[in-house]
Amino acid sequence: RNEAGRGGRGRALVVGLGGGGLPAYLSLRCRLAVQVAELDPVVLELAVKHFDLPVDDHLQVEIQDGLVTVAEAGPASLDILIIDAGSGDASQAMSCPPPPFLESSFLQAAHRALAPGGVVAVNCVTRSDAAFRAAAAALQNTFPQVYCLELSEDVNRVLFAVASPAAAAKTSAALAQRLEEPLKKVVLRGADDDTTEDVVALLENLHLMPGGYCGSTGAGDLAQLALD
């Protein structure tokens, strides 16, 4: 558990700000020290002006490419890393995340930046099963086990991985328990009971992605799938 966050809070990095709802939730409800990497300064302006983004000592936004932010992060300096950046190109098979966030060099940098037991979550927005499988395979090249959370009536599917090896868990309850422990340590340790119950209940919809280390998934493969 990383204690380097401001005020002893666990440290989260969110790539992609949007309206700021997720970073605000992590800061206010989960009591994390949250850093956001956002490429577009207009997005930050809109989040503050129209969505009351609470930028303060515990939630800070940097106008920077998230690829650079993760590459520059210190070893084992993050407890949770969330990739929620979109490409802005609706013609791609997967509009979130952009292909560079699934390349081996980035995922290896992400793994180095996570403390033991740290969690990476990747929001995938796609209707293409092939593109989603390629995203999962890319994570499996770096992280021993990758879990999927499917959101009903939505094109979003979230991939989770933990920065530590673990034995396989086959049932949804076992998977929920597998991720519940690190999440309680690094994400929910300052959260109120209602927030903890909500997150733990959500985890029961997880399932383990098939396969282990899936071999090489190159940037060219991912780029091609983005165009399919």
Largest sheet: 9 strands, mixed
Identify low-pLDDT runs: 212-228
Q: Tell me, rounded to a whole number, the average pLDDT.
A: 80
Secondary-structure content class? alpha/beta
Give the beta-strand count: 9
Oligomer: single chain
SSE pattern, N- to C-terminal: EHEHEHEEHEHEEHHEH
N-to-C span: 40 Å
User: C-alpha Rg, in Å?
Assistant: 16 Å
Count of helical regions: 8
Report on the structure:
The chain is an alpha/beta fold and about 230 residues long. Helix content is about 35%, strand content about 25%. It has eight helices and nine strands. The protein has helices at about 20-30, 40-50, 65-70, 105-115, 130-140, 170-185, 195-205, 220-225, and strands spanning about 10-15, 35-40, 60-65, 80-85, 95, 115-125, 145-150, 155-160, 205-210. Strands 1, 2, 3, 4, 5, 6, 7, 8 and 9 form a nine-stranded mixed β-sheet that branches. α5 packs antiparallel against α8 (about 220-225) and α6 packs antiparallel against α7. It is globular. It starts with 10 loop residues before the first strand and ends with a helix. The model is unreliable at about 210-228 (pLDDT under 50).
